[in-house]
């Protein structure tokens, strides 16, 4: 059977918008990306059996729109603003590691119980999005490019004008921040 | 011997590039004896998978 695409599209619009906002951190640009995606979706002639396959297809269009927007934005001193994000780094390290670089007892990562079960819960995704939103903006941008938009690190360097060693460090910071946030806000309560 | 701080940087990088032989061995030895980093490494996989699903590969 064929889905009622118009009404499905309206129903999925908030999800698309949320995704675009997470990536772009700019409500206006996110709105534009979603508009263009909806327009492209309405003129396309694919057939879909289920809402989830339709959503996957929409997100792949949206992802391309977001990539276009990122490419279009000038490389607006990405490198200098990354320095702002880094100010907290030394402090963060001190709260995690002892002077020899080993985990402080309170910071040592614990085992996350059954991630698959967490993925099933709506509430987990709320927390996950909130944690993504907590990352410093430029750090988040680099992380999103890598994990959601499918950029290789070499391309990220080119698009943002940062060096590759800086890129590794930024991605590392993003993951470090994200896992700490998830552990505190989700797995510490839900897990062992 | 790697410190945990160094190990976490490598565990992030292994998501993005193929580690060199020396790096792989050092990391393997470290996670063998360090429970915290062993957990951290699994968490890196969970993060990757969560991102994949949020990005439409299997809808949350
Ligand atoms: Zn360790």
Verbal overview:
- The complex is a heterodimer of chains A (192) and B (60).
- Chain A has two domains: 75 residues, RNA polymerase sigma factor, region 2, helix turn helix motif (Rna Polymerase Sigma Factor, Chain: A); 105 residues, Arc Repressor Mutant, subunit A (Orthogonal Bundle).
- Chain A is globular and about 60 Å long.
- In chain A, helix 1 packs across helix 3, helix 2 crosses helix 3 and helix 8 crosses helix 10.
- Helix content of chain A is 73%, strand content 0%.
- With 192 residues, chain A is mainly α.
- The model of chain B has no long low-confidence stretch (mean pLDDT 92).
- Chain B is mainly alpha-helical and 60 residues long.
- The site of zinc ion has 6 residues of chain B, from helix 1 and helix 3.
User: What percentage of the residues of chain B does DSSP assign to strands (E)?
Assistant: under 5%
User: In the CATH scheme, what's the topology name of the largest domain in chain A?
Assistant: Arc Repressor Mutant, subunit A
Instruction: Classify the beta-strand content of chain A into a percent band.
Output: under 5%
- Count of individual domains of chain B: 1
- Could you spell the SSE succession of chain B in H and E letters? HHH
What keywords describe this structure?
heterodimer; A: 192 residues; mainly alpha; Rna Polymerase Sigma Factor, Chain: A; Arc Repressor Mutant, subunit A; B: 60 residues; 3 helices; 0% strand; globular; binds zinc ion
């Amino acid at each position: 059977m064929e889905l009622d695409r118009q009404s499905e599209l309206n129903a999925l619009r908030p999800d698309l918008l949320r995704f675009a906002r997470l990536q772009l951190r700019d409500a206006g640009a996110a709105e534009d990306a979603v508009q263009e995606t909806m327009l492209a979706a309405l003129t396309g002639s694919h057939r879909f059996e289920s809402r989830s396959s339709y959503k996957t297809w929409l997100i792949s269009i949206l992802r391309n729109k977001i990539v276009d927007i990122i490419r279009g934005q000038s490389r607006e001193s990405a490198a200098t603003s990354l320095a702002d994000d880094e100010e907290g780094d030394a402090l963060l390290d001190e709260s995690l590691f002892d002077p020899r670089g080993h985990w402080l007892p309170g910071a040592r990562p614990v085992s996350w119980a059954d991630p698959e079960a967490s993925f099933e819960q709506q509430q987990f995704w709320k927390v996950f999005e909130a944690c993504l939103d907590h990352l410093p903006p430029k750090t988040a941008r680099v992380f999103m490019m890598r994990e959601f938009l499918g950029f290789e690190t070499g391309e990220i360097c080119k698009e943002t004008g940062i060096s590759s060693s800086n890129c590794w460090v930024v991605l590392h910071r993003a993951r470090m921040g994200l896992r700490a946030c998830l552990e505190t806000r989700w797995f510490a309560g839900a897990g062992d | 011997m790697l410190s945990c701080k160094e190990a976490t940087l490598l565990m992030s990088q292994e998501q993005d590039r193929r580690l060199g032989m020396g790096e792989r061995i050092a990391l393997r030895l470290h996670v063998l004896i360090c429970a915290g980093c062993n957990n951290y490494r699994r968490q890196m996989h969970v993060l990757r998978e969560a991102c994949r699903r949020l990005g439409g590969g299997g809808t949350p």
